[in-house]
Amino acid sequence: MGGEVVGRGPVRSQADRLHYDEYDLAEFLVPGPNRIELLVTYYGQPNPFWAPARSGAGFGNQAVAVLEARIGDIWLATDES
What we know:
Layout: E1 68-71, E2 74-77
Antiparallel strand pairs: 1-2
C-alpha cells in the first residue's frame, strides 16, 4: 500500500483449512488516490510449501479479496455481506 509491504501470508496450513489474513490499512492511507497491490503466488503443483486446497466455498482456483472501509458512519465494501 503506497509502496509499503503491509503483510505476508497467510501462513502455510493443511489443505483442508483455508486461512486468510486481515489488515488495517488506515495508517497507510494518504490524501488523494491510494492503490492496493497484491502479489499472489501459485506453485502449480504440490510441493513442501503448497498443497492444493479443497475449497468448499466454490471458488476453485480463484483468488478472493474482500475490501471494507469505514468512513465515519458509512461502510464501503466489495459486497453486501
